[in-house]
Amino acid sequence: MSLSLINFIGLIVILGLAALVWIRQRSLQRYQAQLTTLFRHAPIAIIVVDEQARIVEWNNQAQQIFKWRTQEVLGKNIIELLAEPEEHENLKRILDSVRNQQTTVRSENRNRTKHGNILLCEWLNAPFTGQHDARQVICMARPIES
User: Fold this and answer.
1) φ/ψ of residue 117, rounded to 5
2) What is the predicted pLDDT for the residue at 1?
């Protein structure tokens, strides 16, 4: 084979691989957009917390239930923000268990809204590996009594 034919075949292979990468990226972007829409508009509160239980994500339903806007809660400790003081240690153990043992934990807790109202909520907490392999927890909640 001549050098120009080898170069041509190499160019075709590179272009084919580039096309596959582009197609894959487009699919991932669509998938990410779908997940973002699902997160924002889910009918339950979805809150993502980091290893120190600080809120890193807060969806629309969390705003509706707990009355805080996203900008008001990002970086705040979810336990200190929403839970009664006598529940703090138990909730810390739950989040640690989810994060460290990679297990899902269901609980019922009395939670405070921004205006001081108390809601009994059902929670499902699941492990999640975030950016840079950070161990995060996705906390999903719905009021079961107001």
Assistant:
1) -70, 150
2) 56
